[in-house]
Write a structure and sequence with these properties.
Strand content: under 5%
Number of helices: 3
Helix content: over 70%
Distance between the termini: 25 Å
Radius of gyration: 19 Å
């Protein structure tokens, strides 16, 4: 459940960020050296890296939390 919620937030970030990045790429086209403002490979690569990091940030803590015994965690407090 938590992993799904975290990935939903990451998906919303991608859906909002990609059009904004395309617009900003055109706005700062003169400042980019050697990269086209609408370089498809760059956008896909950054989106893939962002998604992989978001998945790892959601999955590994959830995996660790699932391995803990709830009764031991409750007794610890």
């Amino acid at each position: 459940m938590v992993v799904g919620q975290g990935m939903l937030i990451a998906l919303v970030g991608l859906l909002l960020g990609l059009p904004l990045a395309l617009g900003m790429g055109r706005a700062v086209a003169g400042l980019l050296y050697g990269v086209a403002p609408n370089d498809f490979t760059t956008f896909v690569g950054v989106a893939a890296i962002f998604s992989a990091v978001a998945l790892a940030a959601c999955y590994f803590p959830a995996l660790r939390a699932m391995s803990a015994d709830p009764m031991v965690a409750l007794r610890h407090e």
